[in-house]
Amino acid sequence: MITAVCLNPAIDRTASVAALTPGGLNRVIASRSDAGGKGVNVAVTLARLGEEATCLCFLPRENGRLVEEKLAAEGVACAGVALEGAIRTNLKILDESKAEITEINESGAPVNARQLDDMAALIAVHAAKSDYLVLSGSLPPGCPASFYREIMERVASLPCRCVLDADANRLREGLTARPFLIKPNLHELTELTGAEFSGLDDIDRAARALVDRGVGVVAVSMGGDGAFVTDGAVSLFAPPVAVRARSTVGAGDAMIAGLTAGFARGLPLDEAFRLGVACATAGVMSEGTGLIDRQTCAGMLDRVEIRRL
Fold first, then answer.
1. Domains in the chain: how many in total?
2. C-alpha pair distances (Å), 171 with each of 184, 228, 279
3. Can 253 be counted among the known catalytic residues?
C-alpha cells in the first residue's frame, strides 16, 4: 500500500481566457473546479494506475467533505484530522494563446500543536502498514517547516520508504532525514546545491551530490526540457514528449505517483522513470487539475525515450 499525505488540500479552480490581459478585463471562456492538493493528486493518480492508495489530510469542517468525496469517487481510502474553517481555493488562469498558467494560491486554514500531534500520530499508524509514504505539497499556517523531516525521522525504523516532494525550507529540512526519493525542479535544485546549470552534466553532478548526502533517488523535473533521474550509480534523461499541453498543474504530482508506483512494483530505475514521465506527460494533456487518464498514460509509455548519461 502507498500512503500519500496532504496537509493543505485545496479546491483548484481553473479559468481559461483567450489571452490574459494583466490590469484589464478578462472574460472566462471555460472553467472547472477540482478538489485537490498535491497529496490528493498523488493518491488519485496512484489509484488510476491500479495501486492501493490511502490519503491522509487535514479536513476543514466547512467543506472538507469535498476532498473526502473526491477520494471516495476514485477508490482512495481517506482519513484525516478535523480543522475549523474552510479549504483554501487556488485560482489557475490558463492563457489559451500561450498555453501558460498563472496561479494565485491561498494559504489555507491554520493548524495548532494538538492538531499537528494528531496528524503525526495518524501518519505513523498508516506508515506502519505502507510500503511507501509520500509527503508532498505546502504546509498550512501554523505548521513548522520541519514537519516533514520530523515525520520521516519518526517512521525511520519502519520498512516503508519515504518520498518527499516539497520546496524551499521544507525540502532542505527534509534532506537531513534521507528520504528515498525527492523531485526538485531546476530552481529548487539550484537552491539546494548552489549550482548553476548549463547542461545535463551540471544537473547530474548536483543531483549526485544530493545522493551522496543520503537521498536514494533524485528526480528532476525540467518542464519543457524533459526530466532527469539518478540513484548515484545510473543517471538517465528523458526528453519531452511532443503533445498538446492543456495544463501543467498536477503534472509533477503525476510524475511522483508514476515513479512511486514503479518502485512499488519492483521496476528498475529506467522503467520506473519511464512510468513517471509517461504519467507527467498524460497529466499536461488533461484540463485543469483533471489528472491522468490511465489509457492515455499507457499510450505514452512507448513514446518516452530514456537516454543514459
1. 1
2. 8, 18, 23
3. yes
What does the chain look like in DSSP terms, one character per residue? Answer: -EEEEESS-EEEEEEEESS--TTS---EEEEEEEEE-HHHHHHHHHHHTT--EEEEEEEETTTTHHHHHHHHHTT-EEEEEEESS--EEEEEEEETTTTEEEEEE-------HHHHHHHHHHHHHHHTT-SEEEEES---TT--TTHHHHHHHHTTTSSPEEEEE--HHHHHHHHTT--SEE--BHHHHHHHH----SSHHHHHHHHHHHHHTT-SEEEEE-GGG-EEEE-SS-EEEEPPP----S--TTHHHHHHHHHHHHHHTT--HHHHHHHHHHHHHHHHTSSTT----HHHHHHHGGG---EE-
pLDDT in tens, 35-74: 889 999 999 999 999 999 999 999 999 888 999 999 999 9
Q: What is the mean pLDDT of residues 295-307?
A: 91
Residue 99 CB-half CA count within 13 A: 11
Tell me the pLDDT tens digit for each residue of 11-25. Answer: 989 899 999 999 999
Active-site choice (34, 165, 204, 253): 253
To the nearest 10 degrees (0 to 180), the angle between helices 38-48 and 251-264 is: 50
Above 70 in pLDDT, residue 248? no
Per-residue confidence band for 245, with pLDDT thresholds at 50, 70 and 90: low
Which pLDDT score, from 0 to 100, does residue 35 have? 86
CA neighbor of 218 nearest in space, from 242, 236, 202:
236
Range of the domain at 264: 2-20+28-308
> Three cell numbers at 191?
537552491
- CATH number of the domain within which 14 lies: 3.40.1190.20
